[in-house]
Design a protein that fits this description.
Length: 86
């Protein structure tokens, strides 16, 4: 049952999209993501924004090509690194 306290805890009104991660959710997910490499080119996008883009596509059901193509390369690299580490 939704109480005023639980509604405040699960509120997403301050987020840009309903699929964006809250700070508490990000703290949990960030532990499982690969850390930045010490060599090579620096990341173009923050990993949190890439995860927000992934969750937006999953939540909305839109094809990836309708999302900003700038995220596409970052998402592909992150999913490859996650698959290799699993």
């Amino acid at each position: 049952m939704w109480t005023p306290i639980s509604r405040r805890q699960h509120s997403r009104k301050d987020l840009r999209y309903g699929s964006d991660l809250t700070d508490a959710e990000w703290e949990i997910i960030a532990l499982f993501l690969p850390s930045p490499r010490k060599t090579g080119r620096p990341r173009c996008w923050p990993v949190r924004e890439v995860m927000n883009a992934i969750f937006y596509v999953l939540r909305s059901g839109c094809p990836w090509r309708t999302e900003a193509f700038l995220y596409a390369a970052s998402v592909m690299l992150l999913t490859r690194r996650l698959a290799r580490s699993a």
